[in-house]
Write a structure and sequence with these properties.
The protein is mainly beta. A 5-stranded mixed β-sheet has the order 1-3-8-5-6, with no helix packed on it. It has a 4-stranded antiparallel β-sheet with strand order 2-9-4-7, with no helix packed on it.
Length: 240
């Protein structure tokens, strides 16, 4: 016999919820720091990188689930993580794409905020965003950057892995530099060169005579004597 008679009801009514809150699959700061440790950087607009996801682990996606519920776990494949840095002034739009012929597998590109809790854009098939003859399975993730700083870019695969090249392409409708308020220099009040008072002389109808081969003799200090009507008889020994 038991030493104590059993009770007829449980010692406490069951709770409607479990006594311990279920664990979430949200990222923790230590987990994210570990993932980003040593991650390569895409240094803003025009940055490009090449690599391979082949043989990599799916730690980022398996341990930190951002979009599985939305996208039905389609992108459970090895991935590569980048830190993307954007500086002010920010472009109007940014596209991170894999639209290169050496990208040889079905890619998925995802862009997150700094701590990985907000997905800005995810793209699987580019749907015409890549120029022909790019295969349809390449990706182009467009997003409007809300802040200057660091973003997380993930190159993933749709149940696939392989080689890729990615590029950060920026769009801006505004000029790269603010326009000046006025002309670069004030106009002069007068033309730079005053016009001549009279036109240049009309050109001669014929060319000038050919120049002499030797210069003329030195001019005399005064006029020569009036010539005689007839030559003198015998020339003098010395000039007059």
């Amino acid at each position: 016999l038991p030493t104590v008679s059993p009770t007829l009801s449980p010692t406490a009514p069951p709770t409607a919820l479990p006594t311990v809150a279920p664990t979430t699959r949200s990222p923790t700061s230590s987990m994210l720091a570990s993932l980003l440790l040593g991650a390569p950087t895409l240094a803003g607009c025009g940055a490009t990188a090449s690599g391979s996801t082949t043989g990599g682990s799916d730690i980022f996606h398996d341990d930190i689930v951002f979009d599985d519920n939305t996208f039905d776990d389609a992108d459970r494949s090895p991935e590569v993580i980048y830190k993307l840095t954007l500086t002010s002034p920010l472009p109007d739009m940014v596209a991170v794409h894999t639209c290169f012929l050496n990208t040889d597998f079905d890619t998925i590109v995802k862009v997150f905020n700094t701590d990985g809790t907000l997905l800005f854009r995810r793209n699987d098939d580019h749907s015409g965003a890549c120029d022909a003859p790019a295969p349809s399975y390449l990706s182009a993730a467009y997003f409007v950057p809300p802040y200057a700083g660091e973003y997380i870019v993930v190159i993933d695969g749709y149940q696939a892995q392989g080689n890729y090249t990615t590029l950060v392409f920026c769009f801006s409708e505004a000029p790269t530099e603010a326009p000046t308020a006025g002309p670069s220099a004030a106009p002069t009040a007068m033309p730079t060169t005053a016009p001549t008072a009279s036109p240049t002389p009309s050109p001669t109808a014929d060319p000038t005579a050919s120049p002499t081969a030797t210069p003329t003799a030195a001019p005399t200090a005064g006029p020569t004597a009036s010539p005689t009507a007839a030559p003198t008889a015998t020339p003098t020994a010395t000039p007059t």
